[in-house]
Amino acid sequence: MALQPACELCTSAGGVPVAEGRRWRVIRAVDTDFPAFYRLVWTEHLAEFSDLEADERAACMEAVTRIERALRETLRPTKVNLATLGNVVPHLHWHVIARFDWDSHFPQPVWGQRQRAVFPSASERLGVSLDALDAAVRAAVAES
Q: Residues 34-55: pLDDT tens digits?
């Protein structure tokens, strides 16, 4: 397994650990504006999705899909954003982010300009605890 000592996703969890598969891990990003922001991080240090073999791509997307479904079923968000950028950290990872019409940036991307203040806080507005949400995501990917 090729790990890079200078890569923050190789050397640290990158967020709150939620689940771990044979080839990936799921973390929850620590972001007060977006508490339902998960990342699936490929274990091996690769930069691009196309670096994976066909069976690995299928396994990766199956896990991403299961995270999305868990967020949709648990939270009923307005939309779920999926992204793989890697411009800052060139280590293959997928962002899976539950979005709501009330969130601070909607309809802009989470990296875009803030549109509004959110009261009460975003985590309070979710209607479930982050522990319960993590448990739902963990259960969803455990089947993959």
A: 999 999 999 999 999 999 999 9
Nearest to 92, CA basis, from 53, 41, 28: 41
The angle formed by the CA atoms of residues 117, 79 and 93, to the nearest 5 degrees, is: 95
**Domains present along the chain, CATH in parentheses:** 8-142 (3.30.428.10)
Contacts of 90 (CB under 8 A, 6+ apart): 7, 47
CB atoms within 10 A of CB 97: 23
Closest CA to 65 of 41, 94, 91: 94
Residue in this structure with the two tokens 């299961």, named with its chain if needed: 66
E strands, 43-120, are: 79-83, 93-99
What is the rounded CA–CA span in Å between residue 28 and residue 18? 7
Contact 32, 123 (CB under 8 A): yes
C-alpha gyration radius of the chain: 15
